[in-house]
Design a protein that fits this description.
535 residues; alpha/beta; Amidase signature (AS) enzymes; 3 domains; two-stranded antiparallel sheet; 18 helices; globular; disordered N terminus
Length: 535
């Protein structure tokens, strides 16, 4: 029903003489009627904007339809992705409608309803980082990325649930808002920690979302929910105003249903920020427009390396690996030259390396200063003393206890056993250089492997059955960019993702490859149970 309604709505737009990018034709025709409830299901940013510019629907109606879907489905379905809706969303939509009527510039993301993970500061909505200790607390300002989205005309309509303090890739459960399920099967996990954004975007509660990724948490949930997710090069994007887990690894970025929308989002949120010193490295390395890389023939002539060391492992699920093998054939059919296997000689040595810095307590202390004098805690370890932490997942307490042993007021580089920042970390830089050298020697443009070797696990066995998380293994330690794109479904309806990793600041190339693969295979389909609402 939803798919048919959407097709009819889009047919009306085509009849109205609009291009796919939403540009007005020279000759204006009467606005075609649009079923906004059908339109917002699986819509792209361009499709929403085309409908608005054609006059068949208003920004208010688009935002209202998205909010109605949250109200109708979030709790009743058992997904529970949303922590709260923005009370100012409709007011902002009215402002955009008024600006459009005046002919004002409304920005490249105008009226795009967006979900934002609960570790991004939003000055008009509480930001808890998944912890009951910050429940109800409003930050003094927006995170850098949130501000950029709003300036571009996007509307933050809701915040999404996350794993408490982003501690786990296994599931999405917080002491502030509870447990989030996978929209494709509520008996299974959406992964963590950005599972709320993943399930919410997959169920069309909004057109796109923001997540954060310290080791897995954009790409893992995106893979489990048939989304496109980007972990960009360390230095391309700012983490200012994002509740940290490990500042030398944290990345924030888009989670979208299409590669095109991911590129549109990255255009807006990437860029240098004086409040994030890492972004100085990315100065001048962002291309003018990531959507320029959206080429259906983008895989022709590409050389892609298959990192079998990550897929050919004993506990990999055979159905997921069969999907991965088919993805390789599909890449070949789209014109790619496959190097299989591709090997990194020192990979095992680096995977065994101690490259993680346990700096959470220090980074949280720095972050809490930004919340101002009214912040309810000054040191995150106060939650251990007060008991303000989740009891449903025993890993929360043990992880807090682990981080308690490290200082809150001394920069990690000054510890007795120093923990250098990313750009000064000899082991991590060697790992990055070894990956690039292996790519250069093999003459390849990108590396592929399954984002997960295993399907989403049963939600009541999230910790026991955790397996197959490849996102942790290369990109976070090296700082290299990686994307995940839907590659099919195991066991009928459980999404699987193809991960593509590249050289520093090669996001445009990764978008090019992901888009060409997406367009050749069209794997994305919506989860059952979230049909278009009926008036």
């Amino acid at each position: 029903m939803a798919g048919i309604g959407l097709k009819l709505a889009l047919a009306g737009l085509i009849a109205g003489g609009l291009s796919a990018c939403g540009r007005d034709d020279d000759v204006q025709e009467a606005a075609q009627p649009v079923d906004v409830n059908a339109l917002v299901v699986e819509a792209t940013i361009a499709q929403l904007q085309s409908a608005i510019k054609a006059g068949g629907v208003s920004c208010r109606q688009v935002v209202k339809a998205s909010l109605d879907r949250i109200e109708a489905y979030d709790q009743s379905s058992g997904v529970r992705a949303i922590t709260g809706v923005n009370p100012k969303a409709l007011t902002r939509a009215d402002e955009i409608d008024d600006a459009l009527a005046r002919g004002d510039d409304v920005g490249p993301l105008f009226c795009a309803p967006v979900l934002v993970k609960d570790n991004f500061d939003t000055q008009d909505m509480a930001t808890t980082g998944g912890s009951i200790a910050l429940l109800g607390q409003l930050p003094p300002d927006d995170a850098f990325m949130v501000r950029k989205l709003r300036e571009a005309g996007a509307i933050v309509i809701a915040k999404t649930n996350m794993a408490e303090w982003a501690f786990t890739p296994r599931q999405t459960i917080s002491s502030s808002y509870g447990r989030t399920a996978n929209a494709y099967d509520v008996g299974r996990v959406p992964a963590g920690s950005s599972g709320g954004t993943a399930s919410g975007v997959a169920a069309s509660f909004a057109v796109a979302g923001l997540g954060s990724d310290t080791g897995n948490s954009i790409r893992g949930p995106s893979s489990h929910l048939a989304l496109f997710g980007i972990r960009s090069t360390i230095g391309l994007t700012s983490r200012d105003g994002v509740v940290p887990l490990a500042f030398d690894r944290d990345i924030a970025g888009p989670m979208t249903r299409t590669v095109e929308d991911g590129a549109r989002m990255l255009n807006v949120i990437a860029g240098e920020d004086p409040n994030d010193p890492y972004t100085a490295d990315g100065a001048g390395k962002k291309p003018a427009d990531y959507t320029a890389f959206l080429n259906k023939d983008g895989l022709k002539g590409a050389r892609i390396g298959v990192l079998r060391a990550l897929s050919d492992v004993e506990d990999a699920d055979p159905e997921v690996i069969a999907i991965f093998d088919q993805a390789i054939e599909d890449l070949k059919a789209a014109g790619a030259e496959i190097v299989d296997p591709f090997e990194i000689e020192t990979l095992a040595e680096h995977l065994a390396g101690d490259y993680f810095c346990p700096r959470f307590r220090y980074d949280m202390s720095e972050y809490l200063k930004s919340r101002g004098p009214d912040a309810p805690i000054k040191d995150v370890m106060e939650v251990l003393e007060s008991g303000q932490y989740g009891k449903d997942d025993p890993r929360v307490k043990t992880t807090l206890e682990f981080f308690r042993d490290f200082p809150a007021d001394i920069h990690p580089s000054q510890w007795e056993t120093p923990c250098p920042d990313y750009f000064d970390h000899a082991g991590r830089q060697a790992y990055k250089n070894d990956v690039i050298a292996a790519m250069d020697a093999a003459g390849i443009d990108a590396i592929i492997y399954p984002s997960w070797n295993n399907p989403p696990t049963l939600i009541d066995r999230a910790n026991q059955d955790y397996a197959g998380d490849n996102s942790q293994l290369v990109a976070p330690a090296t700082g290299l960019p990686a994307v995940t794109v839907p590659m099919g479904y195991s066991y009928g309806n459980l999404p699987a993702g193809l991960q593509i990793l590249g050289r520093p600041y090669s996001e445009g190339l990764l978008i090019k490859f992901a888009y060409a693969y997406e367009q050749a295979t069209k794997h994305r389909r919506p989860p059952d149970g979230f049909a278009a609402l009926v008036e």
